[in-house]
């Protein structure tokens, strides 16, 4: 929920220039005995019938890019981006960079596009692909992509989200499979044995119940209870129970989350609240609230992308790596799938920008991908974190595959340092990513957030009735209006 380079184009253009220059020199030699007529004409600015104007290299053009930039308080990310800007402008001195820290919002993107205030490129999420493509709010970058030398080395699992009918509309930055992060020290202090990574809903319920201490303000688990993230959290359990958000048959999108699986998942949430009494007394937590609760040691478990939670816990909360463990989402039953929502962050290009701006934006987005500079940046970042007594948290799902040549180089760098967080290898054998719905996903999440809030605030609600009402609302308000291409 919750940043590739068209080098081949440069090489082709450069080669064309060399060929053109070579041809002119040969022509000059052939006409030397005739008084160097052609050479003199060229020196005087004259044209010959055989001269062709060389195409202007995009690097020679004055282009302004309004780039996606970190927020003011994201000091580490800002330093990294500023370094990238300096290196990019050294290669492309004619490019002017304008920093824009606007964050993508479903409620704001339409206005941004209509008023032509959107950045040249911006960050968005996997859930937004269909909306942005169908509304024409992202540029078709297929030609730029096909001319990019590294296109076949991108992690296909997450890149596929922004590919439609063979056309490419965005570039993956990174991805995630929703996980449960566990405060192992808190469990130990309570005398609670940490469950196996191959765990179930019952294991989660029992662990949350045993580790909660309401008198001390400590919850066993802190599910997100407000904002769209509340519905996002719950949907993992819908998937684990075997349910789906929507079906898409014969061009019609239909809400199907009010199923037996949906009832099972909502009933489990109610058990955490009313039977185990394991969630915070003030359960109306947004994403930052829930992650902050974990960071501060006030909950034993939180559901989110592992990177964000662990980074906050270790580098802001002062926890130790051995105390924080990333788990897959629990299976509904023993032997079941550990489904977690597969999401990610993508950079997409503003279709209102010129073709030159789009190409330069693509070059900026991909500037460090698979590069030696990127490898150096990784090592510099790890070393800087170590000097500051901070930890470096790898993202479990990067734009590249970890078993690729580049991925192995990154791992080799990480292995040199003792401040790099290490995930349990078993985690990667259990994670099962499931793609989010592609139509009105944020609207569905918002609707389910209301259902979750009702379930947490009123004891004895009927799950089937709640889900039927929610499905009817989502169907009539959103899904019936989907116009597929």
Automatic annotation (TrEMBL):
Indicate whether Signal appears among the record's keywords: yes
User: Which top-level group of life is the source organism from?
Assistant: Bacteria
Under Pfam families, the record lists: SBP_bac_1
Q: Does the keyword Signal apply?
A: yes
What keywords sit in the KW lines?
Signal
InterPro entries hit by this protein: Bact_solute-bd_prot1, SBP
Bias class Polar residues marks the residues at 36-51
- Specify the protein name: Extracellular solute-binding protein
- Signal sequence coordinates: 1-19
Segments carrying the region annotation (Disordered) are: 27-53
């Amino acid at each position: 929920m919750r940043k590739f380079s068209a080098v081949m184009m440069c090489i082709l253009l450069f080669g064309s220039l060399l060929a053109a220059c070579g041809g002119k020199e040969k022509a000059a030699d052939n006409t030397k005995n005739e008084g160097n007529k052609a050479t003199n004409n060229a020196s005087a600015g004259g044209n010959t019938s055989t001269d062709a104007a060389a195409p202007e290299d995009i690097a020679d053009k004055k282009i302004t890019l309004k780039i996606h930039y970190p927020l003011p308080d994201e000091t580490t990310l800002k330093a990294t981006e500023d370094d990238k800007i300096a290196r990019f402008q050294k290669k492309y001195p004619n490019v002017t960079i304008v920093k824009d820290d606007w964050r993508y919002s479903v409620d704001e993107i339409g206005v941004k596009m209509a008023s032509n205030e959107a950045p040249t490129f911006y960050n968005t999420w996997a859930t937004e692909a269909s909306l942005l493509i169908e509304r024409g709010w992202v540029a078709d970058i297929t030609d730029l992509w096909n001319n990019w030398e590294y296109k076949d080395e991108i992690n296909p699992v997450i890149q596929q989200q922004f590919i439609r009918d063979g056309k490419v509309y965005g570039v993956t930055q990174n991805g995630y499979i929703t996980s449960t992060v566990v405060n192992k020290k808190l469990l130990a202090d309570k005398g609670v044995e940490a469950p196996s990574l191959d765990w179930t809903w019952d294991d989660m319920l029992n662990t949350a119940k045993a580790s909660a201490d309401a008198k001390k303000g400590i919850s066993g688990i802190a599910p997100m209870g407000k904002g769209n993230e509340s519905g996002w959290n719950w949907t993992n359990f819908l998937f684990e129970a075997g349910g789906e958000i929507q079906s898409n048959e014969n061009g019609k999108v239909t809400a199907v989350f009010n199923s037996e699986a949906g009832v099972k998942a909502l009933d489990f949430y109610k058990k955490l609240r009313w039977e185990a009494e394991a969630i915070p007394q003030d359960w109306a937590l947004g994403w930052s609230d829930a992650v902050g609760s974990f960071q501060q040691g006030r909950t034993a478990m939180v559901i989110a992308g592992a990177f964000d939670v662990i980074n906050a816990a270790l580098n802001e909360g002062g926890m130790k790596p051995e105390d924080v463990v990333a788990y897959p989402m629990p299976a509904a039953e023993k032997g079941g799938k550990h489904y977690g929502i597969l999401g990610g962050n993508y950079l997409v290009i503003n279709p209102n920008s010129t073709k030159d701006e789009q190409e330069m934006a693509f070059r900026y987005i991909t500037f460090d991908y698979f590069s030696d500079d990127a490898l150096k940046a990784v090592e510099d970042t790890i070393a800087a974190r170590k000097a500051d007594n901070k930890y470096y948290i790898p993202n479990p799902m990067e734009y590249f595959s970890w078993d690729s040549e580049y991925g192995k180089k990154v791992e080799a760098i990480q292995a040199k340092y003792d401040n790099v967080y290490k995930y349990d290898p078993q985690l990667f054998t259990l994670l099962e990513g499931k793609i989010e719905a592609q139509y009105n996903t944020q609207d569905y999440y918002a609707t389910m957030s209301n259902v979750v809030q009702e379930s947490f605030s009123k004891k004895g609600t009927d799950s089937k009735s709640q889900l039927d009402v929610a499905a009817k609302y989502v169907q009539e308000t959103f899904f019936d209006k989907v116009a597929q291409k």
